[in-house]
From TrEMBL:
This is Porin family protein. Keywords: Signal. It comes from Winogradskyella poriferorum. The keyword Signal applies. Pfam families: OMP_b-brl (PF13505).
């Protein structure tokens, strides 16, 4: 049976935290918008590629600002272009399971006075993604967790990101 590639748009709310002593350990609200295409090999398995603008927010702790003084604001906004490549299981059913790697490129790091001399964050992030989609054609409701494997901090100790994503997608054709 021939299966066509499907295209969709999506938007999500992100709840992000960065694991490190230098960053506040609570989840901060951000957003994600973009599109994706998928190809189902059968009613059970397929692949999905996405291109997303991903805004994440975090706060530095008092320990971090003690080192650098008041050279920058505690609130940090990181804008990434994220590219997940996901395996789709049960792709023809009501619930689809997605999992795979994600590579993200830092578009800007909310430049500050300190960042003019040295960036606080590295330019890339490698993560693993796992989640579920509820398929209510043409609408899709989704929930994911993203585990960051890369050290994203360019200053001080290692820092890894974690994200909870909740969103809605729309099948375009």
């Amino acid at each position: 049976m021939f299966r066509a590639i499907s295209f969709r748009s999506k938007s999500r709310a992100n709840l992000t935290k960065i694991d490190s002593q230098s960053y506040d350990n609570s989840f901060e609200l951000g957003f994600q918008v973009g599109g994706f295409a998928y190809y189902d090999f059968s009613d059970f398995i397929g692949i999905q590629a996405e291109v997303l603008f991903n805004q994440t927010n975090t706060k530095v702790t008092d320990e971090f600002s003690d080192v650098f003084g008041d050279a920058f604001d505690k609130d940090k906004t990181l804008n990434y272009i994220s590219v997940p490549l996901l395996l789709r299981l049960n792709s023809g059913g009501l619930i689809t399971i997605n999992a795979g790697p994600q590579f993200s490129f830092l578009a800007d790091g909310n430049e500050t006075v300190l960042a003019n001399g040295k960036k606080l964050f590295k330019d890339t992030d490698f993560s693993a993604v796992a989640g579920l989609e509820l398929n209510l054609h043409p609408v899709i409701i989704s929930a994911r967790y993203v585990w960051g494997f890369s050290d994203i901090s360019d200053v001080g100790e290692e820092a890894n990101s974690h994200q909870i994503q909740l969103g809605v997608g729309l099948r375009l054709f």
